[in-house]
Amino acid sequence: MALVETSLDDDKAEDVVVIDLTGKTSITDHMVIATGQSGRQVGAMADHLCQKIKALGYKDVVVEGAGQGDWVLIDAGDVIVHLFRPEVRDFYDLEKLWTAPDVVAAAGPDAVSGAHV
Q1: Which of 15, 61, 68, 114 has its CA 20 to 30 A from that of 3?
Q2: Residue 39 dihedral angles phi and psi, to the nearest 5°
């Protein structure tokens, strides 16, 4: 995780957010979301980060969207990184999706006991 944050900091990523997803999903433990000011910066951040991850010996790093530079997803197993241009990040608003309160918990414990499936 420190490698991801350091790499993004080195590449002047903005608004870096780390979301702990432990116990919330089986796909990953952490999600990192960051912004680059242009498609070129987003692509460079993704390229540099992938090189550093692979240098540590991770072989199954999956990268999607690198060609466009609007939204690049890097799946490194325990960490998934989303790199966006500002307007694309605002549109998808992943932080809200993954940090929204649990609907059942917000409704209270009585809501679960009376629910019918």
Answers
A1: 68
A2: -60, -35
SS3 18: strand
Asked if 82 and 97 count as a contact pair (C-beta separation under 8 A), the reply is: no
CB 34 within 8 A of CB 84: yes
Strand order in the sheet with 62-64: 14-20, 30-35, 79-84, 71-75, 62-64
Structural domain boundaries enclosing 8? 2-113
Q: What is the pLDDT of residues 42-72, one digit of tens each?
A: 999 999 999 999 999 988 899 999 888 899 9
CATH of the domain at 69: 3.30.460.10
Closest C-alpha among 44, 46, 20, 42 to residue 32:
20
Q: For tokens 């608004």, name the residue.
A: 15
Partners of 80 in the β-ladder: 31, 75
Torsion of CA 25, 61, 73, 103, to 10 degrees: 0
pTM for the whole structure = 0.82
